[in-house]
Amino acid sequence: MLKVQSVTKTFHPGTVNANTALDNLSLHLKNGDFVTVIGGNGAGKSTLLNAIAGTFSIDEGSIVLDDVDITNLPEFRRSAFLGRVFQDPMMGTAPTMQIDENLALAARRGQKRGLKWGMKREEQERYRELLKTLELGLEDRMSIKVGLLSGGQRQSLTLLMATLKKPKLLLLDEHTAALDPRTAPKVLEITQRLVEHHKLTTLMITHNMRDALHLGNRLVMMDGGRIVLDISGEEKKNLTVSDLLARFSAASGKEEVSDKLLLSK
Amino acid sequence: MNFLLTFIGTLPGAVTQGLIWGLMAMGVYVTFRVLNVSDLTVDGTLATGGAVCVMLVRSGVPVGLAVLIAFLVGLLCGLSTAFLHTKWGIPAILAGILSQLALYSVNLRIMASKANVSISVDRYTLLISQRYVREPSLCNPLFVLIILTVAIIAMLYWYFGTESGSALRATGANPRMARAQGINTDFQITLGLMLANGMVALAGALLAQYQGFADVNMGRGAIVIGLAAVIIGEVLTQKIFINFALKLLAVSIGSIVYFLVLQVVLQLGLNTNDLKLISALIVAIFLALPHFSQRMKKGQNNGGKKSA
Questions:
Q1: A59-97: per-residue pLDDT in tens?
Q2: At what angle do helices B222-237 and B2-29 cross, to 10 degrees?
Q3: Percentage, residues of chain B above pLDDT 70
Q4: Structural domain span for residue A248
Q5: Are residues A159 and A178 in the same domain?
Q6: What is the number of structural domains in chain A?
Q7: What is the mean pLDDT of the segment spanning A186-190?
């Protein structure tokens, strides 16, 4: 389904700041895979997601999605196949536009945008029903500006927008990391429900080891721009956090796991 | 009493100028507020619009067609800035300054190397002229301008409600989100800059007719007047004008208020050489208003909860 093949990306090449964020990395996803990605700061997790999304061009390798080579497609064209939710709740929505307007924009992802009216009446009914499923009361406030919503509400809305038009691949970049501890589980729950309902192939970065173990059918751990662990199926189900830490030390050759990893229980 | 009479006497002129510049300011609104880009091309574009219109009318082209062509040339001015910005990666403000500078030479070329070309309402049929500004007849420029203003607000309102217009708004509101939703943001920025400069050139064509000449310097400081109109309009109406069409109307109102204030200041004894200084001051004051009102609010809240 998704074939990331031997991808390398170096930022600031030829300078003292040269940083190889992705190092000959390969990752293949099967249809319906829900992969959680963990790793310390600077491991290249976000870079991997952004490479797939086309935020920048990669130096070497190829990215193929459903037999379409998207390696050289500009970001906005790839978006036709991708649903994305960012870490920053401000990133995924247009703050000065209404809730329903944001949804209408997302409903047209990958379509030509012409001179037809931007939102049909029957769409609004559909959005109202969809917003109800979030259980945040947003269905009664569809005409308020998204800028007035809380971080959790925005991320939930962004999730809805990312899946409104079924994407081939859902990319979640630590989308609960910036939320308060009470909101984060709620957004994760919505994530899980949407992924299961639409049977989405998903790549989710997280800093939270428990979430990484609890969610999805496959777990990938990154370090230094490479994948150092790839666990799926039964093996993943039986894994504990301490197993994971031990496997990480063994795989990466590092005695200690980075602070950030330890901090997130 | 005398002061008041003189002021009333200058009212029609101020309102008419306000409406012309209001059209220009709506172009500024499209870039500054909708697209979130500060476009400085407009100083050049305004003169380009005037120059194109005047030269065409003088060579026998019907005035309506001349205005239309001025609009189209304005689109090209926007395109050049958009090209420098999106294809060559030059920051928008710099790209605008470069276009503006280049346009100065272009404008002189258009006007056959003359800095000033006149167009008399006695010899040519014009849409509007300063001469009839006090006449209570259909020749009065107010009629044409009000119709144009309403028509352009209606068209912009319609366009920004369409799928294409929504994509443009999203690009201004959050370009990363727009790209994630499959919107070609470079294309939208290009579209917005073209549209805005087209409107500015249209205003330039009208201004040249109104004052009876095109001048290579007529656009100097235009961006400041445009911003003034946008901001004054917002400050005066933000509580009551929520609808997009009303927000555009507010720009026109802001422009009229600007020219009224200018009139008063001039009557207080300052001369026309001081105009640019006064303009800059008026804009600075209105730009600062939101800042100071926020500070005031913070001051009041200090004892209680923190403001968000």
A1: 999 999 999 999 999 999 999 999 999 999 999 999 999
A2: 100
A3: 96
A4: 2-81+167-263
A5: no
A6: 2
A7: 94
Alpha-carbon distance A257 to B75, whole Å? 58
Rounded distance between C-alpha atoms, residue B181 and residue B178, angstroms: 5
**Terminal Cα-to-Cα distance of chain B (whole angstroms):** 48
Chain A residues in contact with B176 by the CB 8 A cut-off are: 86, 91
ipTM, two decimals, is 0.91
Q: Within this chain, do residues A183 and A77 fall inside the same structural domain, yes or no? A: yes
Domains and CATH numbers, chain B: 2-301 (1.10.3470)
| C-beta atoms of B173 and A74 within 8 A | no
Are A135 and A242 part of one and the same domain? no
Chain A residues touching chain B at CB-CB below 8 Å:
53, 74-77, 79-80, 82, 84, 86, 90-97, 101, 104-106, 108-111, 113-119, 161
**A109/B181 touch (CB, cutoff 8 Å), yes or no:** yes
Domain boundary among A164, A191, A211: A164
Q: Could you identify the residue written with the tokens 């579209």?
A: B191
Q: How many angstroms separate the CA atoms of B186 and B178, rounded?
A: 11
pTM (2 decimals)?
A: 0.91
Are residues A197 and A119 part of one domain?
no
What does the block give as tokens for A44?
């290249």
